[in-house]
Specification:
binds aspartic acid; OB fold (Dihydrolipoamide Acetyltransferase, E2P); eight-stranded mixed sheet; five-stranded mixed β-barrel
Length: 585
């Protein structure tokens, strides 16, 4: 037996008990006549004591020689501590050691295994297994497991069954590049790793399984943006015989359950907002509604004077920053420069200070009078003491810039409280999205999403206007889930592919299996997928998903611990019939 108890378990009530503990040496404190050791395992830390009076000289000297992160096993008796440590759950007791066995030695760890460590990110990634010994990382992984368990519990209680779908498949378009795997047995042919199990879950509905879920790895070969992982985990779900309302209710239920079980927070019915409203009011399809600063459109009240910047703009729009009137001129210039950075790309900013006495002072006083500014204040719901920030230009980009400013100001004002949870359904997404460069249309969600009833014909005449039964669940400004009601009719699916620029042959070659299946009694169906990594991070009150993944990749998609990706040897290449082409030849 390696242990009778864990290092987090022993209390005053155990005093007098003989115990066996195993764990890692966190710290050795050698006072000469007495040696204290902090012994750590997953469950906590227990103090061990060796001393001149009560232990043998050999044992004392062995204890003294232990190094950090040595793995040891001890036998001993639980005794009361003379000086207690209220910070520690085991702080009332210590173990008087009678036997010590070194189970394994350890090199000196490259960083300290403590809550606050001296190791930088790269070092900690390289020695991730050591990092996992630290409480912050370990606790995140335990937290993640708890969330996953609650998901499984809730969904299986609701009658969902978990089905595994294959990883070696053919490409499923979710808007990213595929990772491909060469097939040895079918030379020159490749599997793709799933960007999501989308087509399989639809096939399960045709298979009659009716309520499916899976906690599943998905793979997308995207240019890595901050905090994206090439492999990530989804809670993937699908239901048959449902309308949008059924899906929203089912997964609002799941989310509410998680908020309650994990965070102890009860949320009323989730608000809903159409995509168009979200864009108009927040300039963003995943608005953070923990705070206001709603957009006020000013076209009607700002384009009647000689101010050409506004007159020539497609959209003039502002937000009222609470308490912002006290910002100095220099601070406002700083904001304008922040907006002008290429990442944001605004040309400039007009501002209005809403003075406490009800008057206004603006950067465009030359053009506008107090009456005008009062109207702007009304449109942006500005109060005395606020600063109205106004941007203008082409609609979509101006909204995006103002949305960035809104988030930045919320951050600076401390309005993004991680302990507060504000879920929101964004519904009625456009079916298609136009690529501004090529003029081609892409599916905004994916090509299996059905247009709203009766809007199919619009695809030919006004594709931008077609709305889909597609929805996102947004939590605190993050998209945590998204899904849609699917097409289940072969003809509609074929027409959809045509509109997306697939020839009939291409559609057949890629998705023939699905179109064929549609002909054998495909039920109406729809579903959703949640990004588990992000959901867990947000529920944990943090934003970085990497901290909640046991073995994450770095920002260049590398696993620096195992050093992947890596070349494979000649023989392997040969076997796969893959030869590297030498450009020199
Ligand atoms: N497959 C979709 C995605 O990964 C989710 C869904 O439509 O259910 O985003």
């Amino acid at each position: 037996m390696y242990r009778s108890h864990t290092c987090g378990e022993l209390r005053k009530t155990h005093i007098g008990t003989k115990v066996i503990l195993s764990g890692w040496v966190q710290k050795v404190r050698d006072k000469g006549f007495v040696v204290w050791i902090d012994l750590r395992d997953r469950y906590g830390i227990t103090q061990l004591v060796f001393d001149e009076q009560r232990t043998t000289a050999t044992l004392l000297s062995e204890g003294r020689k232990l190094g950090r992160e040595f793995v040891i096993q001890i036998h001993g008796e639980v005794i009361e501590r003379t000086s207690k440590n209220p910070q520690l759950s085991t702080g009332d007791i210590e173990i008087l050691v009678s036997e010590l066995k070194v189970l394994n030695q350890s090199l000196l760890p490259p960083f300290t295994i403590e809550d606050e460590t001296d190791g930088g990110t790269d070092l900690r990634m390289k020695y991730r297994y050591l990092d996992i010994r630290r409480n912050p990382v370990k606790n995140n992984l335990i937290f993640r497991s708890k969330v996953a368990m609650e998901v499984r519990k809730y969904l299986s209680d609701e009658g969902f069954i978990e089905v595994e779908t294959p990883y070696l498949i053919k490409s499923t378009p979710e808007g990213a590049r595929d990772f491909v795997v060469p097939s040895r047995m079918n030379q020159g042919q490749f599997y793709a790793l799933p960007q999501s199990p989308q087509t399989f879950k639809q096939l399960l509905m045709i298979g009659g399984l009716d309520k499916y879920f899976q906690i599943v790895k998905c793979f997308r070969d995207e240019d890595l943006r901050a905090d994206r992982q090439p492999e990530f985990t989804q809670i993937d779900c699908e239901m048959a015989f449902v309308e949008q309302e059924d899906v929203l209710n089912a997964f609002e239920g799941l989310t509410r359950h998680l908020l309650k079980e994990i965070r102890g927070i009860e949320v009323e019915k989730f608000p809903r907002m159409t995509y168009d409203e979200a864009m108009r009011i927040y300039g963003n399809d995943k608005p953070d509604i923990r705070f206001d600063m709603r957009f006020g459109e000013l076209n009607a009240v700002a384009r009647h004077k000689d101010f050409q910047v506004f007159n020539s703009a497609e959209l003039v729009v502002g937000i009222a920053v609470p308490g912002g009137a006290t910002l100095t001129r220099k601070e406002i210039d700083g904001l304008t420069n922040w907006l002008r950075r290429p990442q944001i790309g605004a040309k400039g900013m007009v501002y209005v200070r809403c003075n406490e006495d009800g008057s206004f002072k603006s950067s465009v006083d030359k053009f506008y009078d107090q009456e005008d500014l009062k109207k702007w204040a009304e449109a942006t719901q500005a109060k005395a003491g606020d600063l109205i920030c106004i941007l203008s230009g082409e609609t979509m980009s101006t909204r995006a810039q103002l949305s960035a400013l809104r988030m930045e100001m919320a951050e600076r004002l401390g309005l993004r409280n991680p302990e507060e949870f504000a879920p929101l359904w964004v519904i009625d997404f456009p079916l298609l999205e136009k690529d501004e460069e090529t003029g081609d249309y892409h599916a905004m969600h994916h090509p299996f999403t059905s247009p709203k009833p009766g809007q199919l014909a619009l695809l030919d005449t006004d594709p931008d206007a077609v709305r889909a039964n597609a929805y996102d669940l947004v939590l605190n400004g993050n998209e945590i889930g998204g899904g849609s009601i699917r097409i289940h009719d072969k003809k509609v699916q074929a027409s959809m592919f045509r509109h997306l620029g697939f020839t009939e042959e291409e559609a057949r070659a890629q998705f023939g299996f699905l179109m064929d299946a549609f002909q054998y009694g495909a039920p109406p169906h729809g579903g959703i997928a949640f990004g588990l990594d992000r959901l867990v991070a947000i529920l944990g009150g943090q934003e970085t998903i990497r901290d909640f993944i046991a073995f994450p990749k770095n920002n260049s998609g590398r696993d620096v611990m195992i050093d992947a990706p890596a070349p494979i040897d000649e023989a392997q290449l040969e076997e796969l019939n893959l030869r590297l082409v030498d450009n020199e030849e």
